[in-house]
Specification:
Elements lengths: L12 E4 L2 E6 L3 E4 L4 H6 L11 E4 L4 E2 L3 E2 L8 E3 L1 E7 L15 E8 L2 E2 H9 L5 H4 L5 E2 L4 E2 H4 L6 E6 L2 E7 L7 H11 L7 E3 L7 E2 L5 E5 L6 E5 L1
Parallel strand pairs: 3-15, 5-11, 6-18
Antiparallel strand pairs: 1-2, 3-4, 7-10, 7-16, 8-9, 8-15, 9-12, 13-14, 13-17, 17-18
């Protein structure tokens, strides 16, 4: 048995639909600008370019249904996304074999301190201060592949206080799930417990305390998050 000089932190994990067992999270990879309309609204060319990724910390995933408005920001945006959870991994995974490594899927919000991200971009600095913070990724329960298959189409809709803010379709992703897995595996050794956030459609915008966000995409249970 290992001894530690301080108590080790709890294992980051995600709930699983219909099960008391949890999915342990190892790493969180997020792809940027993976929907053409969102690339345009952020001021970028929507043409297919090599994908790029950033990371959130595993403990930024939060399934409580509450999003505490973060400190040091006055412009926090929602970004609705499909989440991919890997059950196995490896290096140099062939695109044709990539889906065999997926354990399940779920819904997530890539919350962003847009003002801090903008300052970092302007200065040519990393984005982490805008993307990775406490409860920065509200998530719903994972659904195993055995139950939902590999969804590659379906309306992804986010409402805030009942008003539609984001609406897209999974089939609009520039880089599909197998391509993302294959690409990441050329730069990292992927492993069980790795999570990928697959990008967001257009319509990202600010939230305020008291807002209620609801993300839907069949066949997943809706993700409702209160901004507190």
């Amino acid at each position: 048995m290992n001894d530690y000089v301080i108590a080790p932190p709890p294992q980051a994990s995600l709930p699983v639909q219909g099960s008391a067992a949890l999915f342990p999270v190892r790493r969180v990879y997020c792809i940027g600008r993976n929907y053409a309309a969102h690339a345009v609204e952020m001021g970028h060319d929507p043409d297919r370019e090599p994908p790029f990724f950033f990371q959130k910390t595993p403990d930024s995933l939060d399934a409580s249904g509450r999003f505490p408005y973060p400190v040091m920001s006055s412009d926090v945006h929602h970004e609705a996304e499909l989440l991919v959870a890997l059950g196995t991994g490896g290096s140099d995974i062939a695109e044709a074999d990539a889906l065999a490594h997926v354990w399940g899927y779920g819904l997530a919000l890539d919350m962003t301190r847009r003002d801090l991200q903008g300052v970092a971009k302007k200065a040519g600095r990393p984005w982490e201060i805008g993307k990775s913070f406490e409860a920065a990724a509200p998530v719903g329960p994972l659904c195993p592949v055995a139950e939902v298959g590999h969804p590659d189409a379906g309306a992804l809709t986010l409402t805030v206080n009942g008003e539609t803010r984001q609406q897209g379709d999974l089939n609009q992703m520039i880089w599909k799930v197998p391509e993302m897995i294959a690409h990441l595996s050329r730069y990292y050794t992927l492993a069980a417990g790795d999570v990928i956030l697959t990008g967001t459609p257009s319509g990202v915008g600010p939230v305020a305390r008291g807002d209620v966000m609801e993300l839907t995409c069949a066949p997943f249970p809706p993700l409702r998050v209160d901004v507190v």
